[in-house]
Specification:
This protein is mainly beta. It has helices at about 50-60, 65-75, 115, 120-130, 140-145, 150-160; strands at about 85, 95-100, 105, 180-185, 190-195, 200-205, 215-220, 225-230, 235-240, 245-250, 265, 270-275, 280-290, 290-295, 310, 320-325, 330-335, 340-345, 355-360, 365-370, 375-380, 385-390, 400, 410-415, 420-425, 430-435, 445-450, 455-460, 465-470, 475-480, 490.
């Protein structure tokens, strides 16, 4: 992020450094790595990154954790299994870093040259040494941030898995969290943020990917609205806003480009959620006093169906959407009395009946593990509870997670695939995170003062950025590293709209 951000705070917390989920500092001596590209033979793959994706998958990394591992290998060796390097090894002068993930022969004599220069064996050892991808601190390219420049190439390689030489399937596009403040990346990687004030919807955007912000602009539209945002198949973002009497939408006229004016999208309601089918068609769900209705694009980037009832759902419920590993959308909705769930019965297909998912609550957030299993958090008068998939169709029981009562919730994922959860109410903001990939969660820790709404998103380089709102305006806080955070600041040094 740009160093020119403002200094006004949502709370009084200072930047927090987490160390609980990392390995001890002595683990740094287990591996010495190279910084920079090295020479060697080229593998017979469509791209060198395809080799890293394949052996990384076989070693055990999955999802975003696999993308992160491939990016580090690209920074280490250009995904060249024959790569070797002796430069810069000041702690063990004359030692050699070897293979895809550059395993050092002095600190790891147990890894033979035959293994180190074998692509799969090197990946297996890197998976072991990095504790399954939960500790990348020993890699100097990680510490220096060199892997960030390779993330797009790594994601493309993971998407090509099982399709050597071809484009492979498109990566799953997971829905963006809805609420009174929402944020998503344009096709060029720049974050766009929308906040709902009493006088309409306000908008700001990054002027470059991963850095500086524009000033806020007032777009008009429904006042005091709930918002949702989703990407069309061609990359154009589409934004939806609803209040008790009005439902409108607007959309980018070109990928990463300007926006249309407001257009009617239906009558008023309580809340909305939007997400894309596996074929790119956007689906929108809205709640009202008669339950939940939905509307969907008839073709990718195309026109819309009429509103259709979903067969029930919680009246005036809060709604969030997620995507199963096979591309089916799943919808979760809660009001003060009931919590229900429905899902597509086939990819791009019809929907199940609503199923009971628990008792009532105040708010919810839904995310996915590195292995694709869905995680659900819900808040209520006694704190936050947690429920997660145990397999393709099974769910755990609700488990108490502590946290602030009647809080607004949001979540997103770190580059190594761990879910981080944020909660805010009128007096406090807190955070918890998975202690490892697909693992249990840390205790809650302080994240700032109280507020009215919160949403988390990720920058193009993988760093999480959190937006929080209050009657004073819109603030944000962003990761400055794998486990460090900036202080709360106004977006572009201006408060933006009050969100009460």
């Amino acid at each position: 992020m740009s160093s020119t951000q403002g200094s006004s705070h949502l709370g009084t917390t200072s930047p927090r450094r987490r160390t609980g989920h990392r390995l001890a500092a002595s683990a740094l001596a287990s591996l010495l790595v190279a910084a920079g590209l090295v020479a060697g033979a080229s593998p017979a793959y469509a791209a060198p990154s395809d080799l890293c994706a394949q052996v990384g998958y076989s070693a055990g990394w999955r999802g975003e954790a696999l993308e992160f591992a491939v990016a580090i290998a690209l920074a280490e060796s250009s995904c060249n299994p024959g790569a070797s390097n002796r430069q810069g090894n000041v702690d063990a002068e004359g030692s050699t870093d070897r293979g895809l993930w550059q395993i050092n022969d002095f600190y790891h004599p147990d890894v033979s040259n035959a293994c180190a220069y074998d692509a799969q064996c090197n990946a297996n050892e890197a998976f072991r040494i990095s504790s399954g991808g939960t500790n990348w601190q020993p890699w100097s390219t990680y510490n220096r941030g060199h892997h960030w420049r390779h993330m797009d190439e790594a994601r493309a390689a993971v998407a090509r898995l099982g399709h050597p030489g071809g484009p492979g399937p498109a990566p799953l596009v997971h829905p963006v969290e809805s609420g009174r403040v929402v944020s998503a990346r344009s096709a060029d990687g720049r974050l766009e943020v929308f906040a709902a004030g009493a006088d309409g919807v306000h908008h700001a955007w990054q002027t470059d990917a991963n850095r500086g912000w524009s000033a806020w602009e007032n777009l008009g539209g429904p006042g005091g609205a709930e918002l949702a945002i989703a990407a069309n198949a061609d990359g154009r973002l589409e934004m939806f806003a609803i209040n008790g009497s009005t439902f409108q939408h607007r959309y980018q006229t070109a990928p990463s480009g300007g926006w249309s004016g407001w257009e009617s999208f239906g009558g008023g309601g309580r809340d909305i959620a939007a997400g894309a089918n596996a074929d790119g068609r956007i689906e929108v769900f809205a709640s009202g006093p008669a339950g939940i209705f939905h509307r969907y694009q008839m073709a990718s980037n195309g026109g819309w169906s009429e509103w259709e009832p979903t067969g029930g759902g919680p009246a005036l419920g809060r709604i969030e959407m997620e995507k199963a590993p096979d591309g089916r959308l799943e919808v979760f909705a809660v009001n003060g009395d009931i919590f229900q769930h429905q899902y597509q019965t086939a990819v791009n297909g019809g929907w199940s009946s609503w199923e009971d998912f628990g008792g009532g609550g105040h708010d919810l957030t839904v995310d996915h593990n590195a292995d694709g299993r869905i995680e659900v958090f819900a808040s209520g008068p006694v704190g936050v509870f947690h429920k997660y998939q145990t397999g393709p169709a099974g769910w755990s029981q609700w488990e108490p997670a502590g946290g602030p009562a009647d809080s607004q919730l949001t979540s997103d994922r770190t580059p190594d695939g761990r879910v981080e959860v944020f909660a805010i109410n009128g007096t406090t903001a807190v955070q918890a995170w998975q202690t490892g990939v697909n693992a249990p969660y840390s205790p809650w820790t302080e994240f700032g003062g109280g507020g009215t709404e919160i949403t988390a998103t990720t920058n193009a380089d993988g760093r999480i950025e959190v937006f929080g709102t209050s009657g004073a305006g819109v603030f944000h806080k962003w990761q400055t590293g794998f486990a460090t955070w900036s202080e709360w600041a106004w977006v572009s040094n201006t408060a933006g709209p009050a969100v009460n």
